[in-house]
Every structure is written in structure tokens, then in C-alpha cells.
Amino acid sequence: MTEDTDAPERRENLSNDDIVSRILGFTLFCMGLSRAPADQVARGRGWLDDLGQPTDDGKALIEALMSRDSAYGVYKLVY
Question: Is the Cα torsion angle 39, 45, 47, 48 positive or negative in sign?
């Protein structure tokens, strides 16, 4: 199997907790020196809902970050 065929399987196997953790990690990276809570910033971006669960946009963000083809573009767009 090539790495390209393995990537979708890894994305499908992520639990909501894994996705939330990755969203918060990416949010912290983007925040720099901001003192706002990461979960609050992620909610403001629409990546987490009011219950702290990943939204469709949040899931799409993590899928894009896991893809070698689009990860660089995501960082450029968001950051």
C-alpha cells in the first residue's frame, strides 16, 4: 500500500476526542501569544460546537492538515 492509500484510513479511525485534540493543538499554534482559551478561539472559528465537539468545518480542517497535498495551504490560509 502506498502512503496515499493509508491516509484516508487514518482519518476515518480518528475519534472525536482525537479530532478535538488536534483542533486545539492547531488553534494554539495559530494563537501565538494570545491569552484567550484555545477552546473559545476554536469555537469562534467554527471548528468546535458549544458542547466542545468538532463541527464539520473542524473535521474538514483536520482532514486537510493530515493531507500532504493541502496542509501547507491550510497553514497559509488560517495563519
Answer: positive
Q: Are 61 and 71 in contact (CB under 8 A)?
A: no
Name the percent of the chain lying above pLDDT 90: 54
- Helix 56-66, helix 16-31: angle, nearest 10: 80
CA distances from 17 to 5, 24, 40, 46, 76 (A): 24, 11, 17, 17, 26
What predicted TM-score, i.e. pTM, was given to this entire model? 0.75
Cell numbers 478535538 correspond to what residue? 20
Diameter of the chain measured on Cα atoms: 44
What type of residue sits at position 65?
L
